[in-house]
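call fold(seq) -> C-alpha cells
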Amino acid sequence: MTGNIICESSEMGRILERIAAAVLRRNQGRQKLALVGILTRGVCLAQRLQRIIREQSGLELPLGSLDITLYRDDLAQATHHPVLRKTEIPFSLDGATVVLIDDVLYTGRTVRAAMDGLIDFGRPQSIQLAVLVDRGCRELPIAADYIGVEVPASTRDRVMVRVAECDGFDSVTVMPRSASPVSSSGGE
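ret:
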C-alpha cells in the first residue's frame, strides 16, 4: 500500500490542539457548549478534543456520539445490511451550541445526515462543524467551521484517517481508490 502521508501522530496532536483553541476562542462565554462525534473516528477525535479543551481551559464539555446510519440518503440503495451502532447523547441539546466532529469532510452527505440526527434529539441553538480533514469535492453546500488540514484530493482518491483508538496508530493518507483497504475511513 503506497500513498501520500499527510500527517502522523505528533502532527495530528498539534492539529487537534489548534482546533480546540479555535473552538474555545469562538465560543468564549457560551453557557451550553457540547461536543458530538460522528461514529466511528469522529467520536475518537471528539474524545481527544474534550481532553485537550479540559487541559487548555479547565472546562468539562459534555460529549456525545452519533450514529448516522439511518439518516443516510443512500440507505435504500445499500447492497448490504448496515450495521447500527449506538447513539449516545446523555445531555439536552435544547439551546446548546453543538460542535459536531468528523474525521473527513467530503461530499457533505454525512454531515447533512448528522444534522438530521441531532435535530431528532433536540433543538440546538447552533451547530458548528469541526473536521480533521477537508478534502473538497462537495455535493452539498456544507462548510466546516474548524478544519485541521485541507487536502485537495480528486474523486479518484481515498483520504484515509486512522486513529490510535480504532487502528492502533494515527495517520492521514491519500491513496488511489484501487489501492485502499475497505476497512479504513474514506470520508464519504
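The chain has a mean pLDDT of 91.
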